[in-house]
Design brief:
mainly beta, 257 residues, 16-stranded antiparallel β-sheet, 1 helix
């Protein structure tokens, strides 16, 4: 076998060998290459500093890999952990990912764990197919769980995400949430435009104040549709809703004597 060490090399110089396009950063790698010419095997540890993948930025990435045919028809497994994560202006504590590479352009992930803080996280499993020559990526989410301040949302079916050039399209969203369900589709153009439509049914409004940290009491069952279009910083849209047995009480206390 052959042991080798690489330090301070740009990831974009080797991304054509990776099942991800657009990965950037400065990397270190130490590992061993074993097997023969026709069946090489690569194992090692690596790190990437001040990196990015499309709209996701991170301070550090650390991982391990065990790969067969690392330069062509890659197969194997990769474990990675990111810290100092930023996605579309939102900061996250960490992102952990366990992957299996079935072929060069297809990566299966189970699980993916994105942690906002001690009260919020997202866990998902599915697959990523990337075509670097066409600038396209397709993600199929088989299962997803979102937890926020004690409330959970889980997918009822597969969700498909397609990224082409600077446009992200998400279809098949169907979530069990707040005692009811929410479904919809959306399209987002990087830096400029959002187009989405959601339907919701049997949403328990009494469970919403804790999520938004408002000092109010709400009640009733919500159903309807929500359409949003425009720049994410200045959205416009239309809400059509019906609330059965509504309760709304707001209490604001400025000073007690």
């Amino acid at each position: 076998f052959l042991f080798f060490l690489l330090e301070n090399f740009p990831v974009e110089n080797v991304d054509k060998y990776l099942p991800l396009d657009s990965l950037q950063g400065t990397a270190d790698f130490s590992g061993t290459l074993s097997g023969d010419f026709f069946n090489p095997q690569l194992t090692g540890t690596f790190s990437v500093r001040n990196g990015s993948y499309r709209e996701l930025n991170f301070e550090t990435l650390e991982g391990t890999c065990s790969l067969n045919h690392p330069l062509e028809n890659m197969q194997g497994s990769v474990e990675i952990s990111l810290s100092g994560v930023e996605l579309q202006g939102q900061r996250f504590n960490s992102l952990a990912l366990s992957t299996t590479i079935a072929e060069r352009d297809t990566v299966w992930f189970s699980p993916l764990l994105l942690v906002k803080d001690s009260l919020a996280f997202l866990r998902a499993s599915g697959s990523l197919n990337s075509n670097s020559e066409l600038g396209e990526s397709r993600i199929v989410v088989d299962s997803l769980e979102l937890s926020y301040r004690g409330e959970r949302a889980v997918t009822l079916d597969k969700v498909e995400m397609n990224y082409h050039s600077d446009t992200l399209s998400i279809s098949g969203i169907e979530l069990a949430v707040l005692g009811g369900w929410l479904s919809g589709d959306m399209t987002h153009v990087n830096g400029g435009w959002l187009d989405s439509e959601f339907k919701f049914q049997d949403i328990d409004l009494s469970r919403m104040p804790e999520i938004f940290r408002h000092d109010l009491k709400m009640g009733g069952i919500l159903k309807g549709t929500l359409t949003l279009r425009g720049n994410p910083n200045n959205l416009g849209g239309m809400l059509e809703a019906r609330v059965d047995s509504a309760i709304l009480a707001i209490l604001t206390v400025r000073k007690l004597q």
